[in-house]
Design a protein that fits this description.
This protein is α/β, with parallel strands linked by helices. It has 15 helices and 17 strands. The protein folds into 2 domains: about 120 residues, Urease, subunit C, domain 1, CATH 2.30.40; about 290 residues, Metal-dependent hydrolases (TIM Barrel). The strands form 2 sheets. Strands 1, 2, 3, 4, 5, 14, 15, 16 and 17 form a 9-stranded mixed β-sheet that branches. Pfam families: Amidohydro_1 (PF01979).
Length: about 425
C-alpha cells in the first residue's frame, strides 16, 4: 500500500524543518520533503499532516524493561548500595508474571513518548520480551544480561542461554529485532568470563554491550583488583576489537576517549540515571570532540525514573552546559542526533534514523501548536531539545506501520497494561 502524508513539516537530521510530506510504500520511504502533495502524487491512503512536525523516532540505547515495576522502589542511594539493597533483593522476588507486566509497561511508556527502537539488557524473561516487541511493532536490540558470579559452570549456562536467544531471535520480526551479547559489567564479570562473552559475540556476529566506568568507586576498585582502569582492561582483553556499545563511561580520561574513538566503540549516555544515583556526568562533549560515537539512553525506571527520551534530550542538552560553564556545549542539533540517527547507528539499524527516500519508515508526528512550543518560527532544533514534551507526540510509525494514532496506542492495550502492572507490583509489598 502506498501512503501519502502531506501538509507537514519534515525535520532533517540537522533539526531543520521543510514544508512538505512523506510517501511510504512497503515499509520504506520513497519520497520525503518539499513537493509532496495530493495534487502531484498517486496514493492508496492519505493522511493530513495538519501542520505537524515529523521527526525520526527516538532510539533508547540502554534499558532494563524487566525491572520497570521497581520504579521508585529505592531512592537517594549510590549505585552499589542501590544494587545490593534494592535491585538484587527485589529481583529475587520477581516471577514471570511480574516481569511480563513490567515489560508491557516499558513498551507502552516508550512507544507513547515517541521511542521507536530500544536496547534492553535483562536476565529474566528475555524471550517473552522478544515476543512482545515483535507484536508491538517496535524495534529492539535484546540480550540476556549475564553476571559472572558462581564459577565456570554457571558461566557456561549463561553463555549457552545467550547463544540460544541469539539463534532464536537475531534479525527476527522482519529485521526489527537484533540481538547482542550482554555481560553486565567488569565489576560483576571476571576477565575470563568477559573473554568468553567476547568470543560468543564474535562467533555470532553480534553487538557486545556492557556497563563500564559508571562510578568512581567502580574504577578505584577495579584498579585495586586488576591494576587497570576498566576501559584499559577491556582494551587489553581485546574487547574493543568487536562491535561494542558501553553504557555510561562516566569516569574516563582523554586517553580512554582516544581508545574508544580509535576502535569505533560507542557510548550510551544516560544523564538522568547517572545524576540520580550520584554517579557523575559522562564527558560527552569531550568524547564527541575526540570522535567517540555517542547516543542517548534512559537506563531503567528504577534509576531514572522514566523511559522518556524527550526528557533525556533536555537534560543532556542542559547538564553539560552547566558542568562546563559553556553555553555552546552539546548544541541542540547534536542532542537531537544522539537521540535519533546516533542511536540507530550504534544499534545497527542503519536504514533508520532520518526521514529521507530509501530509509525505512520509522518516524513520529508531534503537535507544535502548544504554548510551550510557541513561537515556533524557525527554531525547531532548539524547541525539540529544550521545549518539547512527550505529550506532544501524537503518532508513531515503525517500518511504515502506525503504532500510535492520535495519541492512542494501536498495538498495545494501555488500560490493561496499567491495571496489570499495579496488580503485579502489589506482590512486591
Amino acid at each position: 500500500m502506498k501512503t501519502l502524508i502531506d501538509n507537514g513539516l519534515i525535520m532533517s537530521a540537522e533539526g531543520k524543518l521543510t514544508a512538505g510530506g512523506i510517501i511510504m510504500e512497503g515499509g520504506t520511504i520513497t519520497r520525503a520533503g518539499s513537493g509532496v502533495s495530493r495534487e502531484t502524487e498517486d496514493y492508496d491512503e492519505h493522511i493530513d499532516g495538519k501542520g505537524r512536525w515529523f521527526l525520526p523516532g527516538f532510539v533508547n540505547t540502554h534499558g532494563h524493561a524487566g525491572s520497570t515495576l521497581l520504579r521508585g522502589a529505592g531512592e537517594e542511594l549510590p549505585l552499589r548500595q542501590w544494587l545490593e539493597q534494592v535491585m538484587w533483593p527485589n529481583e529475587q522476588k520477581l516471577d514471570r508474571d511480574m516481569v511480563s507486566a513490567a515489560q508491557d509497561l516499558a513498551l507502552a511508556e516508550m512507544l507513547r513518548s515517541g521511542t521507536t527502537a530500544f536496547l534492553d539488557m535483562y536476565h529474566l524473561g528475555i524471550h517473552d520480551l522478544a515476543e512482545k516487541t515483535s507484536a508491538s511493532g517496535m524495534r529492539a536490540v535484546l540480550g540476556r544480561g549475564m553476571i559472572g558470579f558462581g564459577g565456570e559452570a554457571g558461566w557456561q549456562e549463561r553463555l549457552d542461554a545467550s547463544a540460544d536467544f541469539i539463534d532464536s531471535w537475531h534479525e527476527a520480526a522482519e529485521g526489527r529485532i537484533r540481538t547482542a551479547v550482554m555481560p553486565h559489567a567488569p565489576y560483576t564479570c571476571p576477565p575470563a568470563f568477559m573473554e568468553k562473552a567476547a568470543s560468543l559475540a564474535v562467533e555470532k556476529g553480534v553487538l557486545f554491550h556492557t556497563h563500564c566506568a559508571e562510578t568512581r568507586q567502580e574504577c578505584r576498585d577495579h584498579r585495586r583488583e586488576h591494576g587497570l582502569h576498566p576501559v584499559d582492561h577491556l582494551h587489553q582483553l581485546g574487547i574493543f576489537q568487536l562491535d561494542v556499545l558501553l553504557a555510561h563511561a562516566v569516569h574516563i580520561t582523554e586517553a580512554h576517549m582516544q581508545i574508544l574513538a580509535d576502535t569505533g566503540t560507542g557510548v550510551s549516555h544516560n544523564p538522568s540515571s547517572n545524576a540520580k544515583l550520584g554517579s557523575g556526568t559522562a564527558p560527552i562533549p569531550e568524547m564527541m570532540k575526540a570522535g567517540v560515537r555517542t547516543a542517548l539512553g534512559t537506563d531503567s525506571t528504577a534509576s531514572n525514573n522514566t523511559l522518556d527520551m524527550v526528557e533525556e534530550m533536555r537534560l543532556a542538552a542542559l547538564i553539560h552546559k552547566g558542568r562546563l560553564e559553556d553555553p555552546e556545549a552539546l548544541p541542540a542539533a547534536d542532542v537531537f542526533r544522539m537521540a535519533t540517527s546516533g542511536g540507530s547507528e550504534l544499534l545497527g539499524f542503519h536504514q533508520t534514523g532520518v526521514i529521507q527516500a530509501g530509509m525505512e519508515a520509522d518516524f513520529i508526528a508531534v503537535n507544535p501548536h502548544s504554548l510551550h512550543l510557541t513561537p515556533n518560527l524557525d527554531r525547531a532544533a532548539a524547541h525539540t531539545a529544550y521545549s518539547l514534551k512527550s505529550s506532544d507526540v501524537e503518532d508513531v510509525w515503525v517500518q511504515g506501520r502506525r503504532l500510535m494514532k492520535n495519541k492512542e496506542l494501536v498495538t498495545l492495550d494501555e488500560e490493561r497494561i496499567r491495571f496489570n502492572a499495579d496488580k503485579q507490583a502489589a506482590k512486591l509489598l
